[in-house]
Design a protein that fits this description.
- The chain is mostly helical.
- It is 79% helix and 0% strand.
- The protein has one domain (2-116).
- The model has no long low-confidence stretch (mean pLDDT 95).
- This is Integral membrane protein.
């Protein structure tokens, strides 16, 4: 069960890199109001949701360690908001800058929550 958790965690990080990297590479375009939701961001958001849910399920089923369910719920709500924003604006060219900044900010907030909230 621990090997599955490690694989899911690695894939979760890959999803994070896809989502946040897609935001970071177009900072200049976003500032110029010509940014778009890249296809990699959509895939990254989906990867984050799926691997996050599977990670929690694996940890709960394997009784590997105790989870902070409030923290997990907050992270899930943020991930759902990110995914909805990415889905809604993925076909709009250009996407509203506020939506892209929100996606980037919420993604960063999820990173901070994952690391700092004990």
């Amino acid at each position: 069960m621990d090997i599955l958790r490690i694989i899911l965690l690695i894939l979760h990080f890959v999803g994070l890199a896809m989502l946040f990297g897609g935001f970071l590479v177009q900072q200049k375009a976003i500032a110029g109001h010509t940014g778009t939701v890249l296809p990699i961001m959509w895939r990254g958001a989906l990867t984050q949701i799926v691997t996050g849910v599977l990670l929690v399920a694996t940890i709960q089923m394997g009784d590997l360690f105790d989870l902070n369910n409030v923290k997990i719920a907050v992270k899930l709500v943020i991930a759902i908001v990110i995914t909805v924003l990415v889905f809604v604006y993925r076909k709009k060219d250009p996407a509203p800058s506020w939506a892209l900044w929100t996606v980037g900010g919420l993604t960063f907030a999820n990173i901070v929550i994952a690391v700092a909230w004990r």
